[in-house]
Write a structure and sequence with these properties.
GO molecular function: peptidase activity
Membrane topology: Multi-pass membrane protein
Protein name: Rhomboid family intramembrane serine protease
Strand content: under 5%
CATH class: Mainly Alpha
InterPro entries: Peptidase_S54_rhomboid_dom, Rhomboid-like_sf, Rhomboid_protease_S54
Subcellular location: Membrane
Length: 209
């Protein structure tokens, strides 16, 4: 009778397919949530716009996380949708739990930066801080993890979106929070170090007595 076998290569292939499906579903749900929130905001006369972050008001600290999921109109949301979907998918291929940790660090650090240094009377919201953070994370991740495939991914991401990122962190653009972009980018690079992959420990050699 033939014996069922599974090779290491087959297991690795299935693992990659499973991760890709999980990453795709996660980002599809994330993007769907953003669009659903903007539909609700529009239908309620922009009632959700008040959850943006106003600087140096302690009561606004609670809006740091919600503000990363809200936008000021569908044009604003559309500008973030494609880069967030692509870069989020690429980042989530490294593991869903790792991605969620990276995203949480970026959102919180970016929101705190906006809260600290944004101009008085401004209100900041949008997923672009996370987009800039994922850019920084993907570009830095391969070098931090010493992973050739991730370095290639980071270089491709840099080639495609590098110009837009550089423009986005330049001060002086009306209605654009360059502070949020800059802090998001820095938080993403930090996340690459905080969530870097540890080398597996080598098993200790047996000791005979």
């Amino acid at each position: 009778m033939a014996r069922a076998r599974t090779t290491t290569g087959e297991l690795t292939g299935w693992r990659h397919v499973s991760r890709a499906k999980a990453a795709a579903w996660l980002m599809a749900g994330w993007i769907a949530l953003l669009w659903a929130l903007e539909l609700v905001d529009t239908a309620t006369g922009h009632a959700l716009d008040g959850y943006g972050v106003s600087p140096r008001d302690t009561g606004e600290l609670r809006d740091i996380v919600p503000s990363a999921f809200l936008h000021y109109g569908f044009d604003h949301l559309m500008a973030n949708t494609i880069p967030l979907a692509v870069m989020g998918f690429l980042a989530a291929l490294g593991g869903i739990r790792r991605f969620l940790g990276v995203a949480a660090l970026i959102i919180v650090a970016d929101g705190l930066g906006v809260w600290l240094v944004s101009p008085e009377y401004s209100v900041t919201a949008g997923a672009s801080g996370l987009v800039f953070g994922l850019f920084g994370y993907l570009v830095a991740r391969g070098f931090v993890d010493r992973s050739a495939p991730d370095i290639v991914v980071g270089l491709l991401v840099g080639a495609i979106w590098g110009g837009s990122i550089w423009f986005g962190i330049s001060p002086g653009q009306d209605g654009v929070s360059w502070q949020g972009h800059l802090f998001g980018l820095a938080a993403g690079i930090l996340a690459a170090f905080v969530f870097r992959r540890r080398a597996p420990r080598k098993a200790a050699p047996p000791t005979y007595v």
